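FORM 7B: Structural annotation worksheet

SECTION A. Query
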Amino acid sequence: MGQKVNPVGIRLGIVKDWASRWYASSKDFSDTLIADLKVREYLRSKLSQAGISR
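SECTION B. Predicted structure
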């Protein structure tokens, strides 16, 4: 039997690109990740009707 693979994960770097591009030290990684998620959620809530693609 074959293994099931996430289609986005298998295509990253081939067809699709990462949703975010940022770098952080291991000390700041969690804070940067949380800030990224908050910005995305804010934009998704405020601009949901704007027709902006991902």
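SECTION C. Observations
The chain has a mean pLDDT of 83. The two ends are 34 Å apart (CA to CA).

SECTION D. Sign-off
Analyst initials: ____
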